[in-house]
Specification:
Elements: H1 4-12, H2 27-37, H3 39-43, H4 63-82, H5 85-93, H6 99-108, H7 117-131, H8 140-151, H9 165-171, H10 217-224, H11 238-262, H12 267-286, H13 289-294, H14 301-313, H15 320-335, H16 347-365, E1 368-370, E2 381-383, H17 385-403, H18 406-431, H19 441-453, H20 461-475, H21 479-489
Antiparallel strand pairs: 1-2
Helix pairs in contact: 2-6, 4-6, 4-11, 6-9, 6-11, 7-18, 9-10, 9-11, 11-16, 11-17, 12-14, 12-15, 15-17, 18-20, 18-21, 19-20
Length: 503
């Protein structure tokens, strides 16, 4: 007898050639197995989450452990939602919420992240557009979609991982291209969906976030076809919304956990910021925007800027009472709780961190709701108001006391320069006619793939194909491979047989 999952799979296969039950009894579990068996998934263990795995000398989250935690949280959310009889009809109307689909999408959502994480993403986007002439540039989410649909070669055909339409649709956190799909493009909506906004310093560049390059547009359309008429064409599927929410939850919790372990998050600094705002919130609210920005180093000013930013961007949910309650809850849990005792590596300290993470995860997962008519800035699955504000404050603590540090900026500037130099060196190598037969085989294959898929077939097609191939090639490296490859290309490495060159 056909199960409900199999029935849904028949509608959502989207051209997959394999039979139902291949590998794992469920097509969506088969998708999950293919993702975790991919070398692209394994490489995430060497890719930056915040601090490069090869540079910290410490046990911090990388993209692999982050993806595993997102999958764990996402599945918990999906199982909780589908167990609620009152929500089942709404979930079916919106296209369904299968825990296997959600878990598979969560495992795959960061496959396209390049070396050095979000910094690498920004650098490769700038180089792709300004140096290599690629209108689509680079975007980590679009690169993940490209990997599962195009650049992972299986057998004689280039089919990606051959995933079901449901999982591919669930990967589309931003279900649009950079510039022209769908029509009207989401960046022209008022307000634009989250991620669809245009960078103020580059208004012609299109959306800052997008889910697919134009080379994968037909695949995007096919994956989303079963949801036409159920959700807006710019809106995430329910399963994508679950994955996106789980990503936010995992990020907010484990980055705080990481930098507590390292000793970067200090009780005094975090306490001063939160408590100053609590004491003087009335005063801060009376300060003009420019004056507040100029005094942003004063304790309390930065979190007041956050409060104003939330009202500006997310007035559909931003609430001053909820924000004040969130500041108090984070202060109690973080300042008086986790940060009160320095991490010393003991079993007791590890248990302390584990309890903190479990308590927060359970609190946030239990606050998940589903709505038939979400805000333009939200998905169908979202956190309750109180918990949404708490996540914003947790993320603020991470940005304020980790990402804004000058010592981190020092390393990141070096990493940005490394990637730019590597791209330039590979471009010169690719243009050398005497070296064509000695190019890395994967780079050679990626050039052929890009030449076959790029349209229109204008005179600059070969140049654009080479540019896309270089971006694809560099994006598939780990942090360590990128460093080792540039060392070799610069004549600084004495090593010959390393994993940096088996590509």
């Amino acid at each position: 007898m056909e199960t409900p999952a199999d029935a849904r799979a028949r509608r959502l296969f989207g051209g997959s050639a394999r039979a139902l039950g291949d590998l794992a009894g469920s097509p969506f579990r088969a998708d999950r197995d293919r993702i975790v068996s991919s070398p692209f998934f394994a490489r995430l263990g060497g890719v930056t989450q915040v601090v490069s795995p090869g540079g910290s000398g410490l046990l911090l989250h990388n993209r692999l452990t982050h993806s595993l935690k997102v999958a764990q949280v996402a599945r918990a959310i999906a199982e909780r939602l589908t167990a609620d009889e009152d929500r089942r009809a709404l979930l079916v109307d919106l296209g369904g919420c299968d825990p296997d689909v959600v878990e598979a999408a969560a495992l795959a959502h960061d496959l396209g992240h390049p070396p050095f994480g979000h910094l690498g993403e920004r650098v490769l986007d700038r180089l792709a557009r300004q140096r290599l002439g690629l209108t689509d540039g680079f975007e980590g989410n679009a690169q993940s979609y490209r990997i599962v649909t195009s650049t992972e070669i299986r057998g004689a055909a280039t089919t990606g991982l051959d995933l079901t339409a449901a999982v591919r649709a669930a990967l589309l956190k931003y279900p649009w291209t950079r510039l022209d799909h769908p029509d009207p493009h989401p960046r022209h909506l008022d307000p634009p969906p989250r991620g669809a906004t245009v960078p103020p310093d580059d208004p012609e560049s299109g959306s800052s976030k997008f889910g697919a390059y134009r080379t994968e547009l037909e695949d995007l359309r096919q994956a989303r076809a079963p949801f036409v008429g159920r959700i807006a064409d710019w809106q995430q599927t329910v399963e994508a919304s679950v994955m996106d929410t789980a990503d936010d939850i995992a990020y907010a919790i484990h980055d705080v956990e990481d930098f507590y372990r390292v000793g970067v998050l200090q009780q005094g600094a975090v306490s001063a910021e939160l408590m100053a705002w609590q004491r003087e919130s009335g005063h801060f609210r009376a300060v003009t925007g420019p004056a507040l920005t100029g005094a942003s180093r004063r304790p309390g000013a930065a979190i007041e800027l956050l409060r104003r930013q939330l009202h500006h961007k997310d007035d559909w949910i931003a609430d001053d009472e909820a924000f004040a309650a969130a500041v108090e809850h984070v202060r109690t849990e973080l300042v008086e709780g986790l940060l009160a005792l320095p991490f010393d590596g003991s079993i007791e300290a590890e248990q302390y961190v584990a309890r903190f993470s479990a308590r927060w995860t359970n609190r946030l997962v239990d606050a998940i709701t589903v709505t038939a008519q979400p805000s333009m800035r939200s998905g169908h699955v979202l956190l309750g108001s109180a918990q949404w504000h708490e996540v914003q404050v947790l993320k603020f603590v991470h940005h304020r006391f980790v990402l804004a540090r000058p010592d981190l900026a020092l390393h990141q500037r070096g990493q940005a320069r490394l990637l730019a130099t590597l791209v330039e060196a590979l471009w010169e190598w690719l243009l050398d006619p005497e070296e064509e037969s000695r190019l890395p085989r994967r780079l050679h294959d990626l050039v052929e793939l890009a030449e076959a898929e790029l349209h229109p077939r204008t005179v600059d097609r070969i140049s654009r194909a080479r540019g896309r191939a270089i971006i694809d090639f560099v994006a598939q490296l780990t942090d360590g491979q990128a460093v080792a490859m540039l060392d070799a290309l610069s004549g600084r490495s004495g090593a010959l047989w390393t994993d940096a060159f088996v590509l």
